[in-house]
Amino acid sequence: MAAAITANWAFVAARRGRRQWGGTIPLSCSLSSSSCSGQPNTRKLVLYSKPGCCLCDGLKEKLQAAFSLSGPDSLQNVTLQVRDITTNPEWEKAYQYEIPVLAKENADGKEEILPRLSPRLSVEIIQKKLLAAFS
């Protein structure tokens, strides 16, 4: 299992090419913390992606911004696991023409594919759509 790291470091490192694709990014953590393990009621999003996918990179940046919004509608205890489809033949076959694909993990551990988020959506709308997906 990939180690949890702060959202800020993960995105900076990924842009600089220092981090391999894949891993868990606790987007609701404060930027100064090194881990959010042990948080109760953690909800999980999975982003199927691959290196060099500009749509995937754009969605990750929008997700980071959506999770950093505060207020009554803020997303709490949500982690994002980025999965590189090139590391698993089943993922590659299923998603090679569809990435980025965002899924949520249900209470029973099964994944539910979420509707595609348009790159034109505002960060606030993305936040609301994710809240609705978890309600």
What is the end-to-end distance? 27 Å
Number of helical elements: 4
Number of strands: 5
Shape assignment: globular
Quote the average pLDDT.
Answer: 74
SSE ordering: HEEHEHEEH
Beta content comes to 15-25%
What does this structure look like?
It is a single chain. The chain is of the alpha+beta class. It is built from four helices and five strands. It has helices at residues 7-15, 54-68, 89-95, 123-134, and strands at residues 23-26, 43-49, 78-84, 101-105, 111-113. Strands 1-3-2-4-5 form a five-stranded mixed beta sheet, with helices on one face. Helix 2 links the parallel strand 2 (43-49) and strand 3. It is globular, with a radius of gyration of 14 Å. The two termini are 27 Å apart. The model is unreliable at 1-22 and 24-39 (pLDDT under 50).
Keywords:
single chain; 135 residues; alpha+beta; five-stranded mixed beta sheet; 5 strands; 32% helix
What does the secondary structure layout of this molecule look like, with pairings?
Layout: H1 7-15, E1 23-26, E2 43-49, H2 54-68, E3 78-84, H3 89-95, E4 101-105, E5 111-113, H4 123-134
Parallel strand pairs: 2-3
Antiparallel strand pairs: 1-3, 2-4, 4-5
What is this entry, summarized?
The chain is an alpha+beta fold and 135 residues long. The chain has 4 helices and 5 strands, in the order H-E-E-H-E-H-E-E-H.
